Amino acid sequence: MKQTQYKTCHTKEEALERLVGLSKSGKKIALTFGHFNTIHPGHLRFLHHAQELAEELVIAIAGKNQLTKSQQEHFFSADERALGIAQLAGVGLVVLQDHLSLTEIIEALKPQIFILGKEFEEERNQEIDRFIETVERQGGKVIFTVGDVHGSSYSIFQEPSEVAERKNEKLMRTCRKHQIELEPLNRLIDKFKDQKILVLGDTIVDQYIACDALGMSAEAPVLAIKEVETKEFIGGAAIVACHLATLGAKAHYFSVLGADEPAKMVQATMKEYNIPSVLLEDPNRPTTFKIRYMVDNQKLLRVSRLHEEAIPKKLESKLIEELERLAPELDGIIVSDFVYGVITDRILETLTSLAAKHKLKLFGDLQCSSQVGNVAKFKNYHLISPTEREARIALSDQRSGLEKLSRNLLKSTNSENLLITLGASGFIAFKNDSEPGMIASQHFPALTTNPVDVAGAGDTLLASMAIALCAGGNLMEAALLGTCAAAIAVSRVGNIPISNQELRGYLATLY
To answer: What is the CATH number of domain 170-203+236-280+308-510?
Structure first.
C-alpha cells in the first residue's frame, strides 16, 4: 500500500514538484488521461501498450470539473479512482486534475509521448486539439491507440494459485462495490422456480472421443491416436434449456431436428429433464452433430456434420404458430442462434412483436466462431451476449476500444444490457442507464484458472443470467451468478447442466 500511495500526489505543490522532477530525469515519459471509474481488460490493454512505449507512465485522473453532473453522482471520488489505477504494475505516477489542469500537467511534465484512445482520432474537439498542440509545441508526439484489441489481461506464466486468489479478491471487491450479499442472492435463486422461460434455437449434439496418443505415423507426418471411449452430450440451444430446468425454472424448448439417432437422443433428454418441447422434424437436414477428439483433456480436432440453410417455410410457420400460442404464459425467451438456419428473419420479427405485446424479456446469443452471423440483428433485447470478435464483426470495427465498441453496439441494437465475453479474461457487463449518455460497466473475471472444457461456458452464462434477470435480479447480481455458474461448467468435460444446489454451494464457498 505504501508503494501505491507514493504513486499518487496529494497537493498541487507535490504534483508540480514530482512532474518537474520527472521532466528533468532524462527518462522517456508517456502521459495519458481518463476518468478510470472502473478498470476492465480494455483499459489494461491500453495501459499495457502505453507502458511499452516509454520508461515512465504518468496518468492524469479526471477531477470533478471534468465530469458531467450525472457522472459526478455515479462515479467514485477522484482520490478513490487514483488509488485504484495506482495499484496497477507499470504505472509510475498518478496526478489528479483537481490539483492541476491537463494543460498544466503537460507543461510541467513535457512528455515525449501523449497517448490518446483511438476514438479521439475521429472525434476531435477544441479541447483535445489544445492538448495536442501543447504537447507538439514542446517537442512531444501524439499516439492514438486502443492497445492490442485481442490481447490477454494476464500472464500465462503466473502461478495458478496466485491468479485464482487475485480473481476471487477482485470478484469480492465487485460484490462489495455493488452491495451484492449472499442472503439476497439465495432469495433470488429461490425465485427461479417461478420463472417460465422458452429457449428457441439450433440444437447440437456433441460427441467426445477420448483417445490415447500413439505418436507419429511411420508412413507420413500424421499424429496416430487410438480411440478409447465415446460419450455424447446435448449442446447448442438444447443445453441452455436443460440449464434452466436444473436451475429451477419452468423451461420450454423449440427447435428443428433431423430424422436421425442424435434427434432421438435430444428428444429423450428433454423428457428426462421434464422440458415441454416442440421439436419439428426435417428429414432433409441432419441434427447438427460435432465430434471432438481428445487426448488427456486436450482437444485435437473437431469434425462437424451440419446443414446451414434456413429451415423450410412450412416449419418456420409452425414454429411461429407455437410461439404465438405459448408467449402469453412466458416471462422470457432466450434466442440461442448458431446460424444453422432455425432463427430466420421472420421468426426474429415475430419475437420482437410478441415481446412488446406480452412484456417479455428477450435474451440473445449468436455464435459465429466458424460461420457468418451478425449479433446486431437482435433489436430491443433485454440482454445480448456476443464475444468481442462477434461485436467487432457486427459493427465492422476492428479499431475501437471496448468502451466505445460497447456503447455503439448498445445504441445500434437498442439493448438494455450487454455482455462482451472475453474468453479467459471473463466478461464485461454494460447497462444502459436511464440518463442519456450514461452507461454503467463492470468487469467480471473468469474464476477458473485451468478450465477442463470451455465449450459450454457461454451457454451456462446465458442461461443463469437470463433466469436471474427474469426473477427480478439486477444486471450485476445476474452477472455474479453467471460467472459462478460458468466456473462450475468449465471444470468438467462436456456440457452438463448446472444444478440449483451446485450454484448455491459455489456461492457459499466464494463468500
So the answer is: 3.40.1190.20
